[in-house]
Amino acid sequence: MPSTEWWRGAAIYQVYVRSFADGNGDGTGDLAGVRSRLPYLAELGVDALWFTPWYLSPLADGGYDVADYRTIDPAFGSLHEAERLIAEAGDLGLRCIVDIVPNHVSDQHEWFKAALTAGPGSPERELFHFRPCSPEPPNDWVGEFGGVPWSRTEDGEWYLHLFAPEQPDLNWAHPKVRQEHEDVLRFWFERGAAGVRIDSAALLAKADGLPPMDPAQPHPFHDRPELHDIYRSWRRIADEYGAALIGEIWLPDAERFARYLRPDELHTAFNFDFLSRPWDPAQLWESIDLTLSTHAPVGAPATWVLANHDVTRTVTRYGRSDDTGFAFERKRFGVPTDLALGTRRARAAALLTLALPGSLYLYQGEELGLPEADIPRDRIQDPMHARSGGLDPGRDGCRVPLPWDGAPRRSWLPVPPGWSGYAAERQAGDPDSMLSLYRTALRLRRSFAEAGAGPLRRLRADEPGVLSFARACGQDGTTWICLVNFGPDDAELPGAAELVLASGPLAPGGRVPRDTAVWLRA
């Protein structure tokens, strides 16, 4: 893989700064903490780091309510420290990706404060979606957090916010909005950022006039055709710097999803279909096949992710008896799970995901096997909980600070009792730990990639409980095989293959037990 196309096969680690590592002991993760753990990340074997928003923010939505893209939030550090972090990471061979949230800004952003001061009909309000005073909201849209996505100002006008009221939507039909975001891209590319992750990338553009929902018409704010011109403009800027654009795009239509990945638009986009599937070989293979066939016509690499800062932790999800998939509308309190079963499946899923062609996203703490934390209701901060009327537990359970050495410390979210066993320092010395599995697998994945691992070829498709595939490596005829056993009976290993790595102990006779994955070389 040429270095200029590093994003095609990179292993990218997601850093949720607020919960990654606390450098000053105030209970909140910060850039000093990240810098102190860069050797850990380099040893883990990832190629790049994606930082969730670290900008100035009131934190009404975990930093996705940005008040100023050119200022680091003081809780995290300073712009100078961010520049040092990017440089130090680069010295260790780690590229850095920053997060941009173009659909909206914070209600504390200078633009929105000026719009409120200027009043109805002002040019300042044209940067947002304001509508005149009326008894009812201007349309029947439903927000991304549920509920009515309209709020009133003190002068009676309504403004649109697809997320929380503290996150007013920008008007992307206004040239100043487009210019500002292009300037922000250049600002961070000039400081060494190797890429940009684009939050809610399919929501920016709105239909003219903000019409009511009509099933017979294109959706008024999802996947609008105007978006593609925006991203073509961004691609030209990214190409000047050799940087990558990565979209967060939740779309059920695979063909429409692929349009964002045409050669003059985004480089890659998150594969939420794979993340959402249950622990089932037919379902996962269907997603793998669909993903690869969708990306192939536009020449874009597939991406694979098991978890992120918005979804239930893999160990918890895969330990459930009934629903091991993921959907926001199904999140509820108190769903029972078997953590031992979930851990076994999460280890197997790690090897499955790492063997697939394309790039990989690894959310912090997955390499430690962290489960979802149960946050007391009075400590929940995520606005999804409040906007759901208290039904949805929110996303804080996957955002709990990482346990580094197991020692108790103050933290902005409560760390569950018993998490000391997951501590990175304890796992580092255990060859059977989740951390050791990830370190070994990432190292082997890189060696296979350097050997020229090729396209995927399915094996043993007639065995319903087995998901297996092979990838040719280099010119010497070596083949890399991944086999995952989902069935109740132990699975046979191929006779002429050498075992390279297993997610758990093998059964007598070298057979593969249920919920276990192996890598083989043939």
Verbal overview:
The longest helix is centred in the C-terminal third of the chain and has 17 residues, at 434-450. The model has no long low-confidence stretch (mean pLDDT 96). Helix 8 (254-259) links the parallel strand 10 (244-247) and strand 11. The chain has helices at residues 17-20, 31-36, 38-44, 79-91, 110-118, 175-190, 227-241, 254-259, 272-276, 281-295, 314-318, 339-354, 383-387, 424-428, 434-450, and strands at 11-15, 48-51, 55-56, 68-72, 95-100, 130-131, 150-152, 158-160, 195-198, 244-247, 268-269, 303-305, 359-363, 453-459, 466-473, 478-485, 498-502, 516-521. 28% of the residues lie in helices and 16% in strands. An eight-stranded parallel beta sheet has the order 11-10-9-5-2-1-13-12. A five-stranded antiparallel beta sheet has the order 14-15-16-18-17. A three-stranded antiparallel beta sheet has the order 6-8-7, with no helix packed on it. It contains 15 helices and 18 strands. The protein has 522 residues and is an alpha/beta fold.
What topology emerges from the helices and strands here?
Layout: E1 11-15, H1 17-20, H2 31-36, H3 38-44, E2 48-51, E3 55-56, E4 68-72, H4 79-91, E5 95-100, H5 110-118, E6 130-131, E7 150-152, E8 158-160, H6 175-190, E9 195-198, H7 227-241, E10 244-247, H8 254-259, E11 268-269, H9 272-276, H10 281-295, E12 303-305, H11 314-318, H12 339-354, E13 359-363, H13 383-387, H14 424-428, H15 434-450, E14 453-459, E15 466-473, E16 478-485, E17 498-502, E18 516-521
Parallel strand pairs: 1-2, 1-13, 2-5, 5-9, 9-10, 10-11, 12-13
Antiparallel strand pairs: 3-4, 6-8, 7-8, 14-15, 15-16, 16-18, 17-18
Helix pairs in contact: 6-7, 12-15
